[in-house]
Amino acid sequence: MIELKSISKWVNIGAARTFILKDINLQIKEGEFMSIMGPSGSGKSSLLNIIGMLDEASEGSYFFMDHDVFKLKEKQRSQLYKSHIGFVFQAYHLIDELTVYENIETPLIYQDIKASERKAIVADIIDRFQIVGKKDLFPTQLSGGQQQLVGIARALVAKPKLILADEPTGNLNSKQGEEIMELFKKLNKEDGVTILQVTHSEKNAAYGSHIIHLLDGRIEKINQS
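The chain above was modelled as a monomer; its predicted structure follows.
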């Protein structure tokens, strides 16, 4: 599903080149659940952003579902991202001016899905996440755990093949965090969704079948958990 070949990312500071990622080679099969760990500044979020097509590498190639991502036009890349990738962020990234229902509906509007169809899809996911009673509330009226739940519902509403989660439990208490991780596990096992998460938590990382350890922008090792 995902293949990264010799991916490097750098920034030029004066005459010096500073590497954020260096020579990353990685394969992720469909249906896998993988975790990325490493100290701050090791390149975890940068790697996730390249896989999520939010950023480009300075060098190397990236294949996603047999598409050579860096050779696609921006419109094609955007279509690929919207159709197959769901992002879950630590900071939720919900739109404060929109209700829970409207936040979840947003990705479907970008996909030009008819209003009647959108209604049915959103109703189904709101029911599945047991947040029917919250659908008319605004993000600021929700707890952190509820906001993250809405963020995950929004990421899943378009039925992506891949979920990218950047510290998805970072702002939650341990009970809320556990509930979110159990939800990911269920999505992976029952729905076959491929999941790649960045985490500082060894407990959360262990939900994945493999743990990718990054250090100074390089893959130090990949362990089975």
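Strands lie at 2-13, 16-28, 33-37, 59-64, 67-68, 85-89, 162-166, 194-198, 210-215, 218-224.
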